Amino acid sequence: MPYLELDVPRKLFPMKKVLLLLVLLLLLGAGVFVFRHNNAVVEPPQMNETTIPPTLRDVIARADSTVIPAFSLDYLRGRFDPATHPDFTKVAPEFTDRDGTYYLRKDAYAAFLAMHAAAAKDGVQLKVISATRNFDRQKSIWEAKWTGERLLEGKEKAPQVYPDPQARALAILRWSSMPGTSRHHWGTDMDLNQLNNDYFATGQGLAEYQWLTAHAPTYGFCQPYTAKGLARPAGYNEEKWHWSYEPIARQLTDQARRLLTDQEIDGFLGAETAPTIGVVEKYVLGVSTACKGG
């Protein structure tokens, strides 16, 4: 419970006592402030994430996002371990496809839990099937495709079909990020339910996608890779499963715009193609209007 410590004289006139009592009652009723020897410290009200009204939750998320310190270049490029990073937490198995151990930023995870609960009330089940992937994890995916160990879209060996390095990189970039450029590095982004646009075009998948497009923004989420067009002419193909916690990802997008260059995309096979492709401008920054920083 909130408490009060005030430095006051021991002898007070009766009127001063009355006034002091009124002040005490007002402060206790608000339940927000603590005074320690004339130094005011504000304590936020204790609220359960799942009980905050959606509109209020969105306001809180956006307000919190304005005070987060600038992210480092290494953070932008995913050069850290989310399992040991203090801002990250493990996603509980019941919210996943149970096909691995997933991590998210704590703020993004709290927003997802609130969205998950709201979706469940409407008969929509949301499952995290991919979350944070750091540089090393993304490198293993990219290089397996680069060398042909992993087929592109399940059918092509990249070195055979695309012997030219830039053409090969562009083919991989249809669906996979270069290490150091993925939004999945940030802990703000997650893939939900299926990695297939066709799934979300009919039946249950369509119902899930319609719910997300209607309600996910209320909880702070945006779809970064929408259909290409005038507003998003370059970058990855549309991904209806990929959702981003915008209050934090917006800051990271801004940081990438200021700090990240193609020359700093390195440390993996094919990295030399990043400058010729313009991977930062076209792919890192090539997101939907709803997900752009400003």
Could you please describe the fold and organization of this structure?
It contains 11 helices and 9 strands. The chain is an alpha+beta fold. It folds into 2 domains: 4-42, no CATH class; 49-291, Muramoyl-pentapeptide Carboxypeptidase, domain 2 (2-Layer Sandwich). The strands form 3 sheets. A 4-stranded antiparallel beta sheet has the order 6-7-9-8. The protein has a 3-stranded mixed beta sheet with strand order 1-2-3. Strands 4-5 form a two-stranded antiparallel ribbon. The chain is globular. Residues 1-53 and 63-67 have low confidence and may be disordered.
> What radius of gyration results from the CA coordinates?
24 Å
This entry's quaternary arrangement is single chain
**How do the strands line up in the largest sheet?**
6-7-9-8
Give the helix level as a range of percent.
25-40%
Protein traits:
4-stranded antiparallel β-sheet; disordered N terminus; 294 residues; alpha+beta; Muramoyl-pentapeptide Carboxypeptidase, domain 2; single chain
Question: Would you spell out the secondary-structure blueprint of this structure?
Answer:
Elements: E1 4-5, H1 14-30, E2 33-36, E3 39-42, H2 54-65, H3 73-76, E4 88-90, E5 103-105, H4 106-121, E6 128-130, H5 135-147, H6 158-161, H7 165-172, E7 189-192, H8 203-215, E8 221-222, E9 242-245, H9 246-259, H10 274-277, H11 279-284
Parallel strand pairs: 1-2
Antiparallel strand pairs: 2-3, 4-5, 6-7, 7-9, 8-9
